[in-house]
C-alpha cells in the first residue's frame, strides 16, 4: 500500500467513519456486481473492477438539473500539490470567484497536498461523485484513454507558447471530451509547466541516465522514454517522491520547477538539468452527473467562471515556475545544469523512437496539430 493516505469511500462528506470495517456499503457493492452473492468477494473485487465496469456507473444514473434554489451544493476539489503552485492557485481562484458570485449556493472545498487522497484514488472518487472536481495530470488517465498520451510525448513542445497555441486548437477541444463516456466532464486543460530532470549525479547526455532509476507518473509513454535511455522507470504516487529520493529508493525524477520547489525535491537532489523534455498539464474535471443536476442558473454562472479561470492558468504557471526556478538557483547556483545545443539534440534523438511506438494510439492528426503549434 502506498504511503499516501488511502481513500475510503465513506471518508468524504460523512462524519468520522474512516477505517470502519463496514465502510464499503453493501448497496454500492451490489451495484458494482449484481451477480455476485458474497459481499466479501465484492469487496475483494472492487479494486479490480473499479477501473473497468464501475467507472461507468455515473452515466447509468439519470441526470436532470435540480431547480430548487434553497439547496447548497458542495464541490469537493482534491489535488496533490501545494496550495501555492499553479494548480493550487488556480483551484483557489475558482473558489474565490464562486464565493463571490455564488456564495451560499455553491461552496468549494479544496483539499491540497494529497491530504485527502492520491491522484489515482481521486479519479475513482470523482467517478463516484464522492468528490466533484479534480485537476489530475493527463498522464494519470493512461488506463482510461490513450488519446491524452499526446501530451506525454518527449520534446513535443518547444516552449509554453507552443503549448498555449495547441490548447487553442480544435483537436484539443476533442481531447477534452475523451472521458465523457466515463461520466467525467472536462472543463479545461491547465498547463503547469515543462519538466526538468534531476538526480544526484550530473545528467548531461542520455548515457548519464543509464542504469539509474527515475520516478515517473502512471504513463506508458514516460516508461518507454526512460527505457530508451536505458534508465529504470518506477511508477510512484507524487506524495511518495520526496521520501523515495531521500532514502535512495530512486535516483532521480522529473517535474516542473514549481513542483521541484514546493515539494522540496531540490533539497534531496544535487543536480537539476534544465531539459524541458515533457509537459505537465492537468485536465480539470467535474463529475458529469453532479454538474448536470445543478440548477441551470448556477451552471451558467459556473461556466463563465470556468472560462475566466482557464484564461488565467497559463500566465500563473509561467510566472510561478520562473520564480521557483530563480529561488532554487539563487540558493545553490551549482545545482542547475544547462544543456549545450548538441547535448539537447542527443536527448531529443535518443527519445524520439517513443513517438513511433505511440503514434497509432494517439492519432497522427493530433500529433500534427501539436507540432504545428511549434511553428506558429
Ligand atoms: C506528479 O505526479 O508529478 C504530478 O502529477 C503532480 C502534479 O499534480 O503536479
Written overview of the protein:
It is a single chain. This protein is α/β, with parallel strands linked by helices and 376 residues long. It is built from 15 helices and 11 strands. It folds into 2 domains: 137 residues, D-Maltodextrin-Binding Protein, domain 2; 137 residues, 3-Layer(aba) Sandwich (D-Maltodextrin-Binding Protein, domain 2), CATH 3.40.190. It is 43% helix and 16% strand. The strands form 2 sheets. It has a 6-stranded mixed beta sheet with strand order 7-6-8-5-9-11. Helix 1 crosses helix 2 and helix 4 packs antiparallel against helix 12. The chain is globular and about 65 Å long. The structure holds (2S)-2-hydroxybutanedioic acid (LMR).
Write the SSE topology.
Layout: H1 26-32, H2 39-50, H3 57-60, E1 73-78, H4 86-102, E2 106-111, H5 119-127, E3 133-137, H6 160-167, H7 170-176, E4 184-194, E5 196-199, E6 213-216, H8 220-228, E7 232-235, H9 241-247, E8 252-255, H10 257-262, E9 271-274, E10 279-287, H11 288-293, H12 296-331, E11 336-338, H13 341-351, H14 353-362, H15 364-375
Parallel strand pairs: 1-2, 1-3, 6-7, 6-8, 9-11
Antiparallel strand pairs: 3-10, 4-10, 5-8, 5-9
Helix pairs in contact: 1-2, 4-12, 6-15
Bound molecules: (2S)-2-hydroxybutanedioic acid.
